[in-house]
Amino acid sequence: MELITQHKIYFSNKELIPLSEVAESLLALEKIIKQSPTVLEEIFPGLKIQNVHVFINELHSGSLWEDIVVKFIFGSQQKFDEVISSAREKIGLEYLVDHPKLLAAILLALVLTSGYRSLSSDPIAQQQHINTIEINNNIVINIGAELSQMSPEEFKSIIENSIKDNNKLTKSAIKFIQPAKRDKSASITFDNTPSLSLPPETIKSMPGYVNEDGPLEEIEELKDIEILIRATDLDHKRSGWGAVIPSISDRRTRLQLDPTINTNALITKRSITGDVTVLFKFDDEGKKVPKLYFLRNMEE
């Protein structure tokens, strides 16, 4: 026995999107959809989904419209009928059958939760980006909870507990939203429902890369190294400062100061020698690039 839902996903890009990115986005979406049975089985106890198949019903050119069909495969007809009969009293399954909004909320919550977790574990991620994703996720969580007739806390817990490999899910989320990242004003909307969407600010805030083959970051301790000061801020030691370390990179990088550093002595200098902790990240090609310098000590 199978249960079929149909979904429309709209990317509001103004420019044409390369076919390769569309294909990667669709394959990533399929992987995300295949994580939804774990969530649905928790929402509806007794429901056992054996398999999920995803089909393309139609693609529209210009701004990208993806019309997809999702088939959930169950066991026997009798077991399916029993679950449907008992679960029909809950609005959630009715919406899953007759309307796509519950599944859309689940998919968006998976995408946003993975992005939030990835950035929250990143010591140099911008808090503004984390907050943007969290706000968007809270809206989606509330919608999913209402459709499932449970509290937002319960729905959120089911989503979080269903994610077994956050890096893997984040990689799928990154590929899914990649077409929208090409356009700073693009959004992604599910099933013609503005509240079930990823607006431009969220798409911008989502992670852009997950390195599966190596560490997401690397720390090095350097002593007696030349540091060129490029930005100063007497009122803050954790923000507002920037520096270039020529022996590492010619790019300006955020500089944080140890609380013991005398900013008054530093403010007038353009070049110093000191001990620095460097936090490296890996770019899309896997190359190590500096993301943060932490000045622990300097020669007066």
Overview of the structural elements:
This protein has 300 residues and is α+β, with helices and mostly antiparallel strands. Helix content is 40%, strand content 27%. The protein has 10 helices and 10 strands. The strands form 2 sheets. The chain has a 5-stranded antiparallel sheet. A hairpin with an 8-residue loop joins strand 7 and strand 8. Helix 1 runs antiparallel to helix 8. The protein is elongated.
Q: Topology, pairings included?
A:
Elements: E1 2-11, H1 19-33, H2 36-43, E2 51-60, E3 64-73, H3 77-87, H4 91-98, H5 101-120, H6 127-148, H7 152-162, H8 166-181, E4 188-190, E5 197-198, H9 200-205, E6 217-231, E7 242-244, E8 253-257, H10 263-266, E9 271-282, E10 288-298
Parallel strand pairs: 8-10
Antiparallel strand pairs: 1-3, 1-4, 2-3, 4-5, 6-7, 6-9, 7-8, 9-10
